[in-house]
């Protein structure tokens, strides 16, 4: 987070007066005021019906033309509005943001955003004993989830709106299957469809995996060997994934998926994408903390069903981003380019410093997009992040750019003090090991704000 900007504006700021004792604060130009009002309308607009309730504070200050300009000639003005959310669960929540921008009318306006999210100390613990985000476990929100899931046919758009801010952990297996389109919205068809898809996965494993190497091509043998090497490296800091049976399940899922998707085959990094689905699917059958889970407590039939669910969820997720993993991975290269342009628009000093040091975004952001940020945050936060991913649906690649920009600019001030080598090391080993849900919500909130502000000017991300 950028420092500063968290306090309420002073009377001078709210009155729009200029700095200095002279008090010669002028009114903003009509063009500047129109642009600021447009920004307000963008922020007030609800992205797909979602809102951050409470108070939104926007402050815009013009900058002097040079460092020696007299304070009497500076201009500042502030606008403030309050937006009330009529849903009960948000009655006590607040969302504050300060957006500071240059008074210049160039397209490269430098925006600095500081967002404060509520930290609900009374949030209930999730089903695995860790503290989840306040919104995900709020009793009124749980009631809304229950109401949506009890419908004869789930309204997916409403489910996405609720899920964006976090899903109650014990509801995740069902909700993720619905959001991905693996389970049908119609409750009468759901069990039958899942049973059929699970049997289809078993047939695929028998056809492609449970065969001798003599029936595989050389490329298939090499691919299976690479998967076998990567499985033990998957989430190495979580001991649960070091169990031999878990690694065997990963191997079956990945190899079967790769054989059935020859356009991309297996690409390193896809192994990470299975892990959130595996943990969420296992949580449906195992209680307590993940550290205390034992795969031996599950029957072979349950393990087969869990593998099948992970396979189909992975397939649905990657259907919307196939070119991320085809030859040369053009989809990821496109996202890296958009991230660079977005950072330049939001925080020009950081962008300029990185450019002066010769740091290319590909040197760190390629892994971010390839693994969907799984390696950049503590694993216990991944499922919360993926609630938002799956709620975004087909818009995930676009919104992932904003999440990545928000993550990067969390350390804007620090990055400007580092040289090339230090930045490379820093960005490849982000200091997020002590993060909680609060820090993750801050990242998502900034991403939401920037997406809302820039969504009306898509040319800033033109590839």
TrEMBL record:
Residues 1-33, 64-108 are annotated as: Disordered. Residues 166-393 form the Rab-GAP TBC domain. Residues 1-11, 70-84 have a biased composition (Basic and acidic residues). Residues 14-26 have a biased composition (Gly residues). PROSITE patterns: TBC_RABGAP. Signal peptide: none annotated. Pfam families: RabGAP-TBC. PANTHER family: LD44506P, TBC1 DOMAIN FAMILY MEMBER GTPASE-ACTIVATING PROTEIN. This is Rab-GAP TBC domain-containing protein.
